[in-house]
Amino acid sequence: MTVRFAILGAGRIGKVHAGAVASVPGATLIAIADPMPAAAEAIKAAYGCDIRSIDAIEASADVDAVVICTPTDTHADLIERFVRAGKAVFCEKPVDLSLARVKECIATVEAAKGTLMVGFNRRFDPDFMAVKAAIDAGKVGKVEMVTITSRDPGAPPPDYITRSGGMFRDMTIHDFDIARWLLGEEVTEVFASASVLVDTRIGELGDFDSANVILRTASGTQAIITNTRRAAYGYDQRIEVLGSDGLAAAENHGENRITLADKDGFHTAPLLNFFMSRYTAAYANEIAAFVAAVAEGAPTPTTGHDGLMALALAEAALKSVAEGRMVKVSEVL
Amino acid sequence: MTVRFAILGAGRIGKVHAGAVASVPGATLIAIADPMPAAAEAIKAAYGCDIRSIDAIEASADVDAVVICTPTDTHADLIERFVRAGKAVFCEKPVDLSLARVKECIATVEAAKGTLMVGFNRRFDPDFMAVKAAIDAGKVGKVEMVTITSRDPGAPPPDYITRSGGMFRDMTIHDFDIARWLLGEEVTEVFASASVLVDTRIGELGDFDSANVILRTASGTQAIITNTRRAAYGYDQRIEVLGSDGLAAAENHGENRITLADKDGFHTAPLLNFFMSRYTAAYANEIAAFVAAVAEGAPTPTTGHDGLMALALAEAALKSVAEGRMVKVSEVL
Amino acid sequence: MTVRFAILGAGRIGKVHAGAVASVPGATLIAIADPMPAAAEAIKAAYGCDIRSIDAIEASADVDAVVICTPTDTHADLIERFVRAGKAVFCEKPVDLSLARVKECIATVEAAKGTLMVGFNRRFDPDFMAVKAAIDAGKVGKVEMVTITSRDPGAPPPDYITRSGGMFRDMTIHDFDIARWLLGEEVTEVFASASVLVDTRIGELGDFDSANVILRTASGTQAIITNTRRAAYGYDQRIEVLGSDGLAAAENHGENRITLADKDGFHTAPLLNFFMSRYTAAYANEIAAFVAAVAEGAPTPTTGHDGLMALALAEAALKSVAEGRMVKVSEVL
Amino acid sequence: MTVRFAILGAGRIGKVHAGAVASVPGATLIAIADPMPAAAEAIKAAYGCDIRSIDAIEASADVDAVVICTPTDTHADLIERFVRAGKAVFCEKPVDLSLARVKECIATVEAAKGTLMVGFNRRFDPDFMAVKAAIDAGKVGKVEMVTITSRDPGAPPPDYITRSGGMFRDMTIHDFDIARWLLGEEVTEVFASASVLVDTRIGELGDFDSANVILRTASGTQAIITNTRRAAYGYDQRIEVLGSDGLAAAENHGENRITLADKDGFHTAPLLNFFMSRYTAAYANEIAAFVAAVAEGAPTPTTGHDGLMALALAEAALKSVAEGRMVKVSEVL
C-alpha cells in the first residue's frame, strides 16, 4: 500500500516533511495547502503535487494521511477534523499549549479510533535510536540516570517566545519526551530552576533562557535536563544514560570531521548550527515510521499521549519554578 | 540552464549517479541505457526517465551530458564517441587500464574541445574538501608530508582482481589522485612495497593485497599511502597533511556516534563498511560539480589528465615493486 | 625557607601527603604520628622521618606545619590545638560534620591569626586548573552554567557511610567546592533530589547513593551536580562550564590512551578506578600550594571558610531532599 | 637485593636516570661522575650520593650497576670497561655510531658474560606497552602493518646534527627499535626517502629533516615510519598496528585534557613538547625493568643486539636514500 499524503502548511517545517514524504518509499505526496500561494507553489514545483485548500483536502478521497505543519493554535482543531475525516494524522508538536485542550483532542482521536502521531523527531535520530537500542539490549543494565544537554545556538526573537508558549513548552518539551523515552518509566515529579542569563527581553516577557530540570520516577530513577538558548559553539545536543552496568552516550555533530593542529593546539569545527541540519535524518525517519505504521495499521511510535505527557512536564516545570519546590505531575494533569 | 543527462550503465554505480542527477538542482535525468532490461527498468521506475540504447543516446538532441558507468574496457571508446557527439562526459575511473589508450583518448577529447570529467569522487567528500580548503587557506603553512590511510574492509572476489587491473590501478588509484591533489605539486617519483598477507589467491593472480607507497615531488615533499584489502573494523579512510605550520586531518566515519561504556571500557561503532555509504555525499557533490561546470562552460574540477596521472602513478608503483627501486614517473609516461 | 612538616595520621591519605611533602621542594618531613606503630614505621622507613606522638609534635620547635589526616571527628580539635601552638595547619576535609563546630573552629583559627588550609584537592588537578584558568582568562565569557559529573566506581562499605556523614557531606562536598570555585559567585540556593538505586543497605542507613543537585547564585547562574556511587566504567570525573562565549570542559582520565579496533568497533580502556590514581597530581599540587603559602606568609588557596561553605551546601542539600523544595543556604548557616 | 648504582654523566639524561634510580624500589644511588663539578654537585644535593671519578666507580665495590649517560663517542669504551669490571651496564642509545664498533662491543660483553641494556625507553611507555600487550594477547590477530608517526617539535641546532650521527641514527633509531619490537619478526629490507624541508642548514651538513621509511620482514609484513624535525603542534608520537583481526593504536599526549569551545569550534591543547615530559613514565619504567633484571639475574628486556639492529636499520636507510632502492639489511650488517 502506498500512503497518499497531504501536507497542511508549507512553511519551514512543512518543506522538510514534504521532502521526507517525497523520498520515503511507500509514500506519495498528493497535495499541499497553505494560505501563502508562493509557499504552496514552491512545494508543488519541487514535488509535482496539487495545491488544495484544507477543506478540499479534508474531502479528498485520494488522501490517506495528513501532516499538520500549521501554527500551533490550529493543531488541535485540525487533528480533530482530519481524524474525523478518517485520515491518519501526523502533527508537529505541541498538540496545543493548553493541557485541557490536548486531553480533549486525544479523547476525540480515541473516540474516532483515529491515528495520531506527534512529531517528536528526536526519537528518530539514528544516534539516539542507537542509544535506546543499547538500553533495550541490556547494554547498560538497569537505567538509573539520564542526562540531557540541550542548548540552542542562539535565542529566538522575542515575538517567537510569546507565540511558542515559552522555553519549557517549546524547547524543553523535546527533552521531556526524550527523558520519558529513555527512562522507560513514567516521570512522577519535576523540579525546575530557570534563569534569564542570555537576553533580558526574554525575562521581560515572563520567560526564561537558561534552565536545569530534574525529573524523578516512582522508582527513584532520575533525569537531568540542562538547557540554554545560547551556545556559542553551535547546537549542543547530547544524551547520556547511566545504568547499573554502564553508560550509553550520544555525541554531538560537528560541521565536519576534520582536525586542524597548529602551535595553539588542535581545533575542530563548531557544531551544526541549526536543528534542521542536525536532525535531517530524524525528520526523514519519523515520516518513514509514520508511513510504516499507517501502511500496516500498527500503532504509531509516538502518540497523542506522548504529546500530553511532555506538555504536562512543561506545566509542572513552570509550576516548580514559580513555587520553588518539587511538583508532582499529578498536580497538573 | 538545466543540464539534461543520460546514464550509460545501470549497475551499482549507475544507480548512485542516477540518484545524484535526479536530486541535483540544475540537472535532469532524460535516459538510461543498459543491456540488462531489469536494471534499466529499475532506474526508469525510480526516476521516470526513458530507456534508450547507447546509440540512441548518442543521437539524442535532448541529452547534453552522459555519465559513463559501463565496464572499464568500454570507457575510452564511449568517451571518444560521446565527446565527438558533442556531449559533456563524466566517466568513472579509470579511463582505461592502458596508459597509451588513456593518452589517445585524452588527445581525442582535446581535439574535439570536449568536456571530460573523471570520477575521482573522494575529492568531493566534504571532509576532504575541508582539509583542502584549510591547506589553500594557509592553515598548515607549506605542505610537507601527506599521509593517506586507505583500507578496504575486505578483499574483493578473485575474479574482480583480474578485471580491475589489480590493487594499484583499482584501489590505490584513488589515493594517488588524492595525494596529487593535496600535495599541490606533481609527483615525480614513486616507491612501492607490496605484499600478499590477506588472501593467497590474490597473490596467485599476480596481485597484492597490502602495500605501502611513497611518492615524492621535485621539491622533496612526500606522500605515504598505506593500503590493505582487509580492515576488520570497517572501511578505514583517513588523510593527514603536515605542513610547516601544522596539520590537517580528516577522521573516519563510524556507523553512529554513540559511545557505550562498561566494565571493559568505552566502545564505539565500527566504521561504515562500504564505499557507497562512506562517500554518499561525495558522489552527490561530484555530480553537482560536473553540472555546475557544464552549465557554466567552465573547466571540470577533475579531468582526463588527472585520470592519466593517477594511472601513471599506478604503473610506476608496479614497476617499483618489480624492481625494488624508486621509479621516476617519467619512466612510465 | 624550608617548611618543616609533621603528619598526623599514617593511613591511606597520610601516606599520600607524606610522599607529597617528601618530594615538594621547600618542604621537609620531620615527623609522623600514628597510634598504629606499623603505619608510622612504614612512613619512617620510606622517608627517614621521626615517629613522635601528637603531643610531642605540638611541642616540637622543629615543626612549622602539620597535615591532619586523622579521623574526621578529631579534625576540629587538632586544628585548634595546632593553630594555637603556632603551626600552619593543612587539614583533610571535612573540618567537622557539624556546621556549628566548624564555625567555632574557624573562629578559633581567626582569633589565633592562624593558617588553615582545607584539603579540597580537586582544585589542584591540572585539568581543572586549566579550566579555571580559561575562565579567568575570559575564554568562555561570563559563566552561566556549571555541570559536574562525579561518579564513584563503586559504593563504599555500609559502615563507612555512617562514619563519613553520608554522600552529600563526604562525596558531593568535593563537587560543592568545585562548583563554588568555578561559579565565581557564592551559591545562595540548593535543590537536591536523592535516590537509593545502587545498594539498599545505604538506604537503610538513611543515606543515598544517587543524586542530582542544582545550585543557584544570586545572579541566576546555576550549577548541576550529578552523583552516583556506581559507575561500571570507572571513576567518572568531568566538569563543564558554559559561558556566554563558549564552553570549557575537563575530560576523564582512562587507564591508558590506546584504542583497539575490531569487528565490533573501537575500544578504549576504562577510567582510572581510584581517586588516588586519578588525582595523583592534585594531591602533590595542593601540598606544594600549601608550602608556598606558608613559606611566603600568603593566604592559602583554600581556607576554613571554604570548608564551612561546602558543608553548608551539603546541609542545605539534605534539607532540600527532606522537604522537596529549594533551600536557601542562609537557612542552614 | 638492592641494586647499588652509579651514574656516569650528570647532564640532562643523567638527571632523569638519577631521579629514576632514586625512586625505584630496589635501587639506590651511590655515586655520580661528571667532569663538570656543578652538574655532579646538583645530583649529590638532590639525592645525597657521592661524587666519584669514573675510575673510582670502576673500582668501587659498593657499585653493582652503572648507567652510562656520557657523550655517544664514549659509550662503547665505557660499556667494555664496566662490563669487564663486573658491573651491570645500562647505556643510553646508541652504543656507537659505527656498526663495527657496536659489534665489537657486544662481543666483549658476551665474552665477559656481562649485562648490557640499551636505553630504548619507548618500549617502556605505558601506552606502547599496552599496544604490545594487546598484540601478544592476540587482540589484533596476525600483525600485518605497523605505522609509526614520529615528529619532533623542532629541529635541533646544526651542531647537534653532526654529533648525533644524523636523523636516522639519532631520531629514527627509536622508531626502528619500536618497529622491530611490534613487528615481532626481524626486518630484512629497508627503503627510505629523505628530504630537507625544515632547515636548509641541515641539508648543508649532509643530513635530512623529513623522511619516510618502509621496513619489510621475510614474511612480507611491513612497517612505515614517518618522521620530521618540525611539528608545530608539539611532539607527535603515535603508533598503530594493523593485524588480521583489527587495529591497536596509541594516541598522542596533550598538555592537558581540557576542551574549549567557542564560535570557531572546539580546541584542545598542543602536544607535550619535549621528549622528557612525554616519556617521563617510560624513563622510570626502563630503569625499574633494568633493576628487576639485575636483581633477578634475568636477561634485560633490551640488549646490545637491539642496539646493533636499530643502528643497522639506520645504516640501511642511509644506503637506501643514497641509492634510491630497497636495501637488504644483510648488505650493511
Automatic annotation (TrEMBL), chains A, B, C, D:
<dbReference type="GO" id="GO:0000166">
    <property type="term" value="F:nucleotide binding"/>
</dbReference>
<feature type="domain" description="Gfo/Idh/MocA-like oxidoreductase N-terminal">
    <location>
        <begin position="3"/>
        <end position="120"/>
    </location>
</feature>
<keyword id="KW-0560">Oxidoreductase</keyword>
<comment type="similarity">
    <text>Belongs to the Gfo/Idh/MocA family.</text>
</comment>
<dbReference type="InterPro" id="IPR000683">
    <property type="entry name" value="Gfo/Idh/MocA-like_OxRdtase_N"/>
</dbReference>
<dbReference type="GO" id="GO:0050112">
    <property type="term" value="F:inositol 2-dehydrogenase (NAD+) activity"/>
</dbReference>
<dbReference type="InterPro" id="IPR036291">
    <property type="entry name" value="NAD(P)-bd_dom_sf"/>
</dbReference>
<feature type="domain" description="GFO/IDH/MocA-like oxidoreductase">
    <location>
        <begin position="128"/>
        <end position="247"/>
    </location>
</feature>
<dbReference type="InterPro" id="IPR030827">
    <property type="entry name" value="Myo_inos_IolG"/>
</dbReference>
<dbReference type="InterPro" id="IPR055170">
    <property type="entry name" value="GFO_IDH_MocA-like_dom"/>
</dbReference>
<dbReference type="Pfam" id="PF01408">
    <property type="entry name" value="GFO_IDH_MocA"/>
</dbReference>
<dbReference type="Pfam" id="PF22725">
    <property type="entry name" value="GFO_IDH_MocA_C3"/>
</dbReference>
<protein>
    <submittedName>
        <fullName>Inositol 2-dehydrogenase</fullName>
        <ecNumber>1.1.1.18</ecNumber>
    </submittedName>
</protein>
